[in-house]
Amino acid sequence: MIGIGNIVALQHGAMTCRLAPDCGGSIASWTKQGAHGLINLFRPASFAAESSGSATDMACFPLVPFSNRIAGGRFTFQGRAVTLPPNLGFSHAIHGHGWTAPWTVDERSDRAARLSYHHPAGAWPWRYSAVQTIALDDDGLVMTLDLINESDSAMPAGLGLHPYFPKPPGTRVTTGLTGMWESDGNVLPRSRHPLPTRLDFPAGLAMDDSVILDHGFTGWNGQATVRWCGGVADGTSVSLLADGPFGHLIVYAPAGETFLCLEPVSHMTDAVNHPEEADAGVFVLAPGERLSGTVRFRVSSP
């Protein structure tokens, strides 16, 4: 747990995006003033969450240099055995390092900011830097992630974003997917299957209380839309448009919660331990090489 520190507020038209750089380079809230009141486009951090400084209670946080779990925090890469400490109360390493550390505000304007994070070699035996560029425009929010290998040997690499969306009754998600990883009791991939008929995301899936997910999906077309019905957000939608290495989608919709997560990521869960999977998604960065990706969050209002 780290302090939330200073808030950097970006403003453009009716939209406001509040950044918490000290809290894992997170976004604390993203809102738009609608005709009937303030609309939360991401689930906002509560006052208590802002006081605690936990990135998992924020509106969105970055995933570098990998997303989701590495089983037991252990893997071997090019003959080198790596053991990472577990985090978030799991027996696994999860979500990389960026979300647990403060980021530096390198540049900012009224509607954009550039944040950076520098990681020295340690248990993760490669030195790297990560950069987030976060900007508001007429259509919504644009986030670009860059990961640069600053060590003297090749490094396995991945990127992702972990946005939280409000999930009031009537929330519907539409996205193009073809397959799903079934998980074991540790939420690690066990077997891959075609997309179940009960999860008809391509046709638009009502995210009611019967839809409980913490799964990785394959065959993602790089687009997804969250649409709300009722309340001040009635008819409003946010569409994700991913460019770059984001070939996988994690959907997290836990039981009894009023949020859901649609996480664009570059690789499957525990990808470094699945070299047999042709589309596992692990990138290998040579010294000095960069991995980049952009996700656009487009807002549509009635």
Q: Give average pLDDT, whole number.
A: 94
Count of individual helical segments: 1
The total number of structural domains is 1
Shape by Cα distribution: globular
Approximate helicity band: under 10%
Distance between the termini: 39 Å
Radius of gyration, rounded?
18 Å
In order across it, which strands form the biggest sheet?
10-11-12-13-26-22-21-16-19
Q: What is the CATH-assigned architecture?
A: Distorted Sandwich
Largest sheet: 9 strands, antiparallel
Structural class: mainly beta
H/E topology pattern: EEEEHEEEEEEEEEEEEEEEEEEEEEE
**Overall number of strands:** 26
CATH class: Mainly Beta
Low-confidence stretches: none
CATH topology: Beta-galactosidase, Chain A, domain 5
Strand content: over 45%
Account of the protein in words:
The chain has 302 residues and is mostly beta strands. It has one helix and 26 strands. The protein has one domain: Beta-galactosidase, Chain A, domain 5. The longest helix has 6 residues. The radius of gyration is 18 Å and the shape is globular.
Features:
302 residues; mainly beta; Beta-galactosidase, Chain A, domain 5; 9-stranded antiparallel β-sheet; 7-stranded antiparallel β-sheet; 2% helix
Helices and strands in order, then pairings?
Elements: E1 8-12, E2 15-20, E3 26-34, E4 37-40, H1 47-52, E5 60-63, E6 69-70, E7 74-77, E8 80-83, E9 93-94, E10 104-108, E11 112-119, E12 128-137, E13 140-149, E14 155-157, E15 160-166, E16 172-175, E17 179-183, E18 189-194, E19 205-206, E20 213-218, E21 223-227, E22 237-243, E23 248-253, E24 259-265, E25 283-285, E26 290-300
Antiparallel strand pairs: 1-2, 2-3, 3-4, 5-15, 6-9, 7-8, 10-11, 11-12, 12-13, 13-26, 14-25, 15-24, 16-19, 16-21, 17-18, 17-20, 20-23, 21-22, 22-26, 23-24
